[in-house]
Write a structure and sequence with these properties.
This protein is 2% helix and 36% strand. It has 358 residues and is mostly beta strands. Strands 1, 2, 5, 16, 17, 19 and 20 form a 7-stranded antiparallel beta sheet that branches. A 5-stranded antiparallel beta sheet has the order 6-8-13-10-11, with no helix packed on it. Strands 3, 4, 18 and 23 form a 4-stranded antiparallel beta sheet that branches.
Length: 358
């Protein structure tokens, strides 16, 4: 009996579609800005603000009959505990973050390998939500090292305006037995607030406090209905075996393709990304870099250098599609991370497509 695969896969992509002459040197640098001196029609984007931006966001392509070209992929990702409010956090503030790489934003990224570090005896971290919510549970995840920095004593407080605070839960003498351990707590006095603050008043020893994740959850544990695969600009992978977290290829942005496999068997989604109009010749190439990110256990079982950087020809109609296939054998594996097909002889496909195919 086969069990459905529920792994969540996210892929960050940096895309260059241009003639082979733009593969190196000054021409490649210019390509990152969307054009080259040698070939004004060349196209490239690393998705930074000055680069060409996607024409479509989270948009599944449709066939000639108007039917969506997608099956078995759910883009409504639910990561974290039931009722998680992670996606509703719109601002994060902390009392201090002396190390720029160990800042408050790491608390809400769902990645225990990153952390927030504070160099004060007492400290606080604050979440602002997009709308008031009644938090009934919350979870803390211990960081990678130095257990003496773990929060031990704290209060969870709520506020409507960030000035007047109400204590909704108090904990003393809490211990974390392992690194990367997540402990979940019930809120003693739930009430509706837009702003929540974890006020840490004690830890085992020293003057440093650290925490990998802070997650809030309400009582709404209803699983959202399946939605289209996501294809949008993001901040780069939060956790990747091949890339630095939170950055793209040439800056701070990357294109994110994400979804989950609903059941056994084939699953796929063709998403429209860019509307381009390029002349295709025998030397035309499509190049892209892929940074896989897996939100659940089941990383790639065997690596292949070509998964993370690839040059391949874009072929005119009649010669077959140009595609890149990732490595199988993982939860939420990405077999077709990005797909481009030429639909008219001599003209590049006007609809850039991202494809996830398990």
């Amino acid at each position: 009996m086969h069990r459905p695969r529920w792994g969540v896969a996210l892929v960050s992509v940096s895309l260059v579609a241009a003639a082979a002459a733009v593969a190196s040197g000054e021409a490649a640098s210019a390509a990152a800005r969307g054009h080259t001196a040698a070939d004004p029609a060349a196209f490239a984007s690393s998705f930074e603000p000055d680069d060409p931006q996607p024409t479509w966001t989270d948009t599944v392509d449709r066939d000639a009959g108007g039917n969506p070209r997608s099956s078995g992929v759910d883009g409504n990702l639910v990561v974290g505990m039931p009722g998680s409010l992670r996606s509703h956090v719109i601002a994060i503030a902390v009392n201090t973050q002396p190390n720029a790489n160990e800042n408050g934003n790491n608390l809400n990224d769902g990645d225990p390998a990153t952390k927030w570090l504070a160099d004060t005896p007492t400290s606080w971290a604050q979440y602002t939500l997009d709308a008031p919510a009644t938090v009934v549970k919350y979870a803390l995840t211990s960081a990678n090292d130095a257990p003496e920095r773990d929060p031990r004593d704290w209060t969870l407080e709520g506020s409507a305006d960030g000035t007047a605070w109400t204590t909704v839960d108090t904990r003393n003498g809490v211990t974390f037995d392992q690194r990367f351990q997540t402990r979940t707590f019930d809120v003693a006095a739930p009430a509706s607030f837009k702003i929540y603050r974890l006020n840490i008043t004690g830890h085992p020893s020293g003057n440093l406090t650290q925490l990998a994740d802070l997650e809030l959850a309400d009582a709404n544990t209803t699983t959202p209905p399946p939605g289209d695969m996501q294809s949008r600009i993001g901040k780069g992978p939060a956790s990747s075996p091949t890339a630095k977290a939170g950055v793209g290829y040439s800056g701070l942005k990357a294109f994110q393709i994400s979804g989950r496999h609903l059941a056994e068997g084939r699953a796929y989604s063709y998403n429209k990304v860019f509307d381009v109009d390029l002349t295709v010749t025998g030397d035309t190439q499509l190049s892209y870099l892929v940074f896989p990110e897996f939100k659940q256990p089941g990383h790639l079982r065997r690596g292949r250098p070509g998964l993370h950087g690839r040059d391949l020809p874009v072929r005119p109609q009649g010669r077959g599609p140009a595609r890149h296939r990732g490595e199988p054998g993982c939860a939420g594996s990405v077999e077709d991370a990005l797909h481009r097909t030429v639909e008219q002889p001599g003209i590049a496909d006007r609809r850039g497509r991202g494809r996830q195919n398990h």
